[in-house]
Amino acid sequence: MWRNTRSGWGLVSIIFHWLSALVIVGLFVLGWWMTDLGYFDPWYNRAPWWHRSVGMLLLFATLLRIAWRLFQPTPVAQGSRLERLAAHLGHIALYVLMLTVLLSGYLISTARGRGISVFDWFEVPALVSHLPNQASIAGEVHWYSALALLLLAAGHALAALKHHFLDRHDIFVRMLNPARTRRR
C-alpha cells in the first residue's frame, strides 16, 4: 500500500499530496497575514522565520515528491481525452508553480547573502545572492506565482469534486484511501 499501482495511489503519494496542499494553503495565509505586521508587532520577525522554515521543508519535500513520482507508476487516468490532457498539463503546471514559489522564496531570503535557518535545526546556504534587485524581482515572482498556484489548486480540487459527484469516477477516492482502489 506504500507504492502506487496502475489502479491507485500509494500511501506515500497520498501523504505527499495532502501534506503539500495543507502546507501550501497555510504558507499562503501566513504570508499574506505577515505582510501587514507592524515593526513593533511581536510576530514581525517570528512569522517570516516560520514562513521561511516551513517553506524550506516544503521545498525538500517537493523535491522528494517529484523524485518519488518519477519512479512510481501513475494510476490510469479517467475521463475524456480532453479531460485527461487537461489533468496531465494541470499537474505539470502545479509542480512548476510549486517549485517557482519555493525557489523564489529562497531567492528573497538569501538576497543579502545570508543562509536560511530552518527552525534552528540546520541552515540552507545562500547559493545565489547579491543579484541586482534580487529580493524585489523574486518577491514579485513569489507573490504572483503563489496566487496562480492557489487558483490552479482550487481548479484542481473542483475538478476532483466534479469527477467524484457528477461523473461518478473514483479519482477523488483514490487520493484518500489506497485500499479502496486496490480491489480491482
From TrEMBL:
Cofactor(s) the protein requires to work: heme b
Similarity section: Belongs to the cytochrome b561 family.
Bilayer topology term: Multi-pass membrane protein
Name this protein carries in UniProt: Cytochrome b
Subcellular location: Cell membrane
This protein's record includes keyword Transcription: no
Domain Cytochrome b561 bacterial/Ni-hydrogenase as annotated: residue spans: 9-177
Classification of source organism: Bacteria, Pseudomonadati, Pseudomonadota, Gammaproteobacteria, Oceanospirillales
Transmembrane segments: 12-34, 49-68, 89-108, 141-161
Alphabetical UniProt keywords: Cell membrane, Electron transport, Heme, Iron, Membrane, Metal-binding, Transmembrane, Transmembrane helix, Transport
Record's keyword annotation contains Metal-binding: yes
PANTHER family: CYTOCHROME B561 (PTHR30529), CYTOCHROME B561 HOMOLOG 2 (PTHR30529:SF1)
Highest taxon in the source lineage: Bacteria
Chief place of localization: membrane
Listed InterPro entries: Cyt_b561_bac/Ni-Hgenase (IPR011577), Cytochrome_b561_oxidase (IPR052168), Di-haem_cyt_TM (IPR016174)
Organism, scientific name: Billgrantia zhangzhouensis
